[in-house]
Design goal:
Helix content is about 75%, strand content about 0%. With about 90 residues, the protein is mostly helical. The longest helix is centred in the last third of the chain and has 27 residues.
Length: about 90
């Protein structure tokens, strides 16, 4: 998981994305491949055991990602954050 996030970060840096987009790219890069592999294992190969892996992965990944997002938002200056927009009707 960490290696995949690091690979996503390096890839996004090589492409030239800004720092706030790099974090998003790294998280999506890591998560997408695990989910895709689990889906293929369960649906095409019939390995239902991988469904349990998906649940454990989800329960582990969500708190880590939320902590990463909180840390990233805390380190980001207030002026760089998107302003809150009132919903239009």
């Amino acid at each position: 998981m960490t290696v995949a996030k690091l690979a996503g970060w390096i890839t996004s840096a090589a492409v030239g994305l800004p720092a706030h987009d790099r974090m998003t790219f790294a998280v999506v890069f890591a998560t997408r491949h695990v989910v895709l592999g689990s889906a293929v294992a369960v649906t095409l190969l019939g390995c239902v055991d991988y469904a349990a892996f998906g649940v454990v992965y989800f329960v582990t990944e969500v708190p880590l990602l939320l902590a990463l997002v909180a840390l990233h938002r805390r380190r980001q200056p207030r002026s760089d954050r998107a302003p809150y927009a009132e919903p239009t009707q």
